[in-house]
Amino acid sequence: MAAPNARILIVEDTLSLARVYQDYLRVDGHRIEHVGTGRDAISLLRQNSFDVAILDLLLPDMDGRDVLRMAHDVSPHSQIIVITAHGSVNVAVEAMRDGAYDFLLKPFTAEKLRSTVLDALKNQRDGAKNRAEPGVNDGGDENPRRAVFGDGINGEEARKYFDFIGASDTMRGIYRIIDSAAPSRATVFITGESGTGKELAAEAIHRRSERANAPFIPLNCGAIPKDLMESEIFGHVKGAFTGAVVDREGAAHRAANGTLFLDEICEMDLELQTKLLRFIQTGTFQKVGGSSLETVDVRFVCATNRDPLEEVRAGRFREDLYYRLHVIPLHMPPLRDRGHDVLQIANFYLQRFSSEEGRDFKRFSPDVADLFSRYSWPGNIRQLQNIIRNIVVLNNGPEVVMSMVPRPVSNFGLEGSLVNGSIEAPPPHPVVSVDMADGDRLWMDDPEALAFLSGKQMQQPPSGAGLGIFAARPVRARDKNNGAGRGIEAIRPLWMVEKDAIEDAIDRCDGSIPRAAEALGVSPSTIYRKKQSWEEIG
Known about the structure:
By secondary structure, this protein is of the alpha/beta class. It folds into four domains: 7-127, 3-Layer(aba) Sandwich (Rossmann fold), CATH 3.40.50; 183-238 and 246-331, P-loop containing nucleotide triphosphate hydrolases (Rossmann fold); 336-410, Helicase, Ruva Protein, domain 3; 494-536. The protein has 20 helices and 18 strands. The strands form six sheets. The chain has a five-stranded parallel sheet with strand order 2-1-3-4-5, with helices on both faces. Helix 18 (494-508) crosses helix 19.
């Protein structure tokens, strides 16, 4: 299978598991060493050359991701495969962004471990070949890990995975989760902002599974009136209600032996959620107005652009249904987190729309490409599609130039312009006289405000940077004497201050964690992890 005599380091603190991994790999003739701590792993990687390192992210002395980053620095040519628990796929995806070649979800088979190591060794050889032959990898892909992806998916194929476009580390992690989850019967729960490709992910799971030749039935729970939703899912018999003039099969029947995709699942009525839970548990359902039970074999995939846990806490989504559906979580990243994928997607749609509309566009000018790379795309891929369609329909030429880009994208980065892609610009700074009676003015003790009013320049962060929807909110200047003499007991723990800031952001965003994350300049997964840690603290 794999070339013998590859040198492999296993970093695993549980000795019994390390021995299992060693037994799995020894049949291929590899030389294997084992350490149980992150510090020992870094020390060994500094002293010796390893082809592959297999790293468990849960170690007793260090965070596994810190070990990953340090290992990548001290041994950049080693291919690192991370191991994580089944419910920690988001952590694994972030590990790939930090430089891991691939990840494995526990439990895994010997064949899965051996094939992943084989892919990593192939990738290392391809990377070594590219380093030895200047110009081989001049296609704009600076990361040699992209040369090979997963089970036989090479870099070019990764850029067009099913109907997805892009080979960023973030999306490669998504593709790997889809590959791992597709053969299973387990339910996949997809989250992400609108326009991030949740339905594409659901289709990819179906097409990658053994059910690919059976129907894929999508159903948007937010687009169908409440009174008709039960009939849409389960069907109805003639005479069940006014207008039911014939028997009708529902989505559940049509999806038999295939996949039923329930989009915007959090929009479903609570009463219907109870019936859906029973259907998922038993595989049986009853048509509206019918008296007999039908049994079908269906794989469930669901999606929402809301935070499902918040919906559970608010009483809008059944907790038992959430845990029944939330088996394999898959969070689709916003376009702003996908790096060079933005330009790959933009070029794809430029060529497609130019062909459809009979235009001559071939490329983007450098300044437009730079703008597209920096813009936050709050509407994600759907917004990008619409912007490019607008450009192609209203213009023509070999190159897209800045004058062709419509608002709001064209305003991004200009003075008084959009903040993080928001449609509304911040209000102008108020004009205040420094000669008026200012006894209790909020800005009296604020050096920045006083410098502004006196015409002096102060070094400031970029306008609106990281502030998002809070950019236009006034901030009260701190009273220098406030709290003086209260003592060290008045100091609050940092995690509590952070918790208050995050919860305030969520409240200001009407409970939307993705919007709050954008405003705070962090990823939604960061807020989810913080909230989970606060719950554990109690």
